[in-house]
Design goal:
Number of helices: 5
Number of strands: 3
Strand order of the largest sheet: 1-2-3
CATH class of the largest domain: Alpha Beta
CATH architecture of the largest domain: 2-Layer Sandwich
Number of domains: 2
Helix content: 55-70%
């Protein structure tokens, strides 16, 4: 007897009309499809929006870097050029390597003392930079951010090794050459 109302509704429906429970299921599926498509589209366009805003911010960051460099160049600096360093990256089968040539920016009044210390420790410096680069993976040396991070880490380490607990004499590290093969 509990089945009578349901059977009566089906019996009252004109021939060729769909079952109401099937129609509700189809509507629910269609609604779920629209929601999923809307969420995917919204996610896609949100990601594109943020990607554009990140690209727009990059020139501002580059301008800030240029201002920092130009402030440093208002002072007098001299460059101490080092020999090329070749190091295998920490990759399978040692198939990738880096060849880097450093130039160290030193304030001109400090150049004589700094270059004497650099000349005296040239082998130690080259060994340290080689070992540092050998510890890097390919992803660690890709891109501008990683490139700047490597320069800053080399600068900080050399200043600490050569002049511990003193005023750092290396103002900046530049790569004259930085090739990854």
């Amino acid at each position: 007897m509990a089945d009578e109302p349901e059977n009566k509704a089906v019996a009252d429906a004109p021939e060729g009309a769909a079952n109401p429970s099937k129609t509700a299921a189809i509507i629910r599926l269609a609604l779920a499809g629209v929601i999923v498509a809307g969420a995917a589209g919204g996610g896609y366009f949100t990601a594109r929006l943020f990607a554009r805003s990140a690209k727009a911010e990059q020139p501002a960051e580059a301008a800030e870097e240029h201002k920092e460099t130009s402030k440093k160049t208002d002072e007098e600096f001299s460059c101490y050029k080092m020999e090329s360093i070749i190091a295998n990256l920490d990759e399978p089968r040692l198939a990738r390597y880096v060849r880097a040539t450093l130039a160290l920016s030193i304030r001109t009044p400090d150049y004589a003392a700094a270059s004497a210390a650099l000349d005296k420790n040239k082998v130690k410096i080259k060994d340290w930079v080689t070992r540092y680069l050998m510890g890097c993976k390919l992803d660690d040396v890709r891109g501008r951010e990683n490139h700047n991070r490597i320069r800053k880490e080399i600068q900080a380490s050399l200043n600490e090794q050569l002049w511990p607990q003193q005023r750092p004499l290396i103002a900046e590290v530049f790569f004259e050459e930085f090739n990854v093969q």
